[in-house]
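Example for tutorial group B:
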């Protein structure tokens, strides 16, 4: 999306359109016009003073959702003077604003949990042929709530991918065993080391053979 279109939709990044502030970015509400009408957007704008320092994490928020077809990302602008990601506008804001709200019923909370768990299950991809994505920053402030109380995961700035599914499963299995409520059922340190080394070997093997694949096969 062009910078001029984004400026127009946000009234040139008007203070009145500001809906969020962070250490490295501001978020602006906008209205993007198109052939079928208009879409209300949230434009996440990287602070210019941080160009070259925070860009990697900022555009990781774009790269992973686009690669895995996240419906919440609708566009971006990578300009010399602006770095912006466009999301669907979450009309109900972030989940952390509702955790203590008694109007959020038990059924609504369960449905939100199902949405989040379904999103993480897709990212972890242990049952499909795709690379595992580890979010690394799941918290209530990174869950957006929409008109129908549908919950979507955001905040992919700390995420990383290229995790071999077998490596991830091996790591997760031993990690869960370490948390067993019965002390005698927890693995010894030596077994933990063995399983972690296995997880590492799985991922190193994955990186080795993947690097030899033709580019159009990946």
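The residue assignment follows.
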């Amino acid at each position: 999306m062009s910078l001029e279109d984004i400026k127009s939709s946000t009234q040139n990044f008007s203070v009145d359109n500001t809906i969020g502030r962070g250490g490295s970015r501001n978020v602006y509400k906008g209205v993007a016009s198109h052939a079928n009408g208009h879409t209300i957007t949230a434009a996440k704008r990287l602070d210019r003073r941080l160009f070259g320092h925070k860009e990697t994490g900022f555009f990781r928020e774009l790269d992973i959702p686009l690669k895995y077809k996240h419906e919440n990302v609708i566009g971006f602008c990578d300009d010399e003077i602006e770095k912006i990601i466009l999301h669907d506008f979450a009309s109900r804001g972030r989940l952390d604003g509702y955790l203590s709200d008694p109007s959020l019923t038990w059924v609504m909370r369960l449905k939100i949990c199902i949405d989040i768990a379904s999103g993480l299950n897709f990212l972890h991809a242990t049952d499909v042929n795709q690379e595992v994505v580890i979010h690394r920053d799941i918290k209530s402030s990174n869950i957006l709530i929409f008109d129908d109380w549908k919950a979507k995961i955001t905040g992919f700035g700390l995420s990383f991918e290229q995790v071999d599914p077998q490596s991830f499963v091996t790591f997760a299995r031993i990690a869960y065993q370490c948390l067993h409520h019965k002390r005698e059922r927890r693995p010894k340190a030596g077994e933990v080391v063995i399983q972690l080394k296995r997880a590492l070997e799985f991922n190193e093997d994955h990186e080795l053979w993947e690097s030899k694949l033709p580019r159009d096969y990946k």
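The chain is about 35% helix and 20% strand. Compare this with the pattern of hydrophobic and polar residues in the output above.
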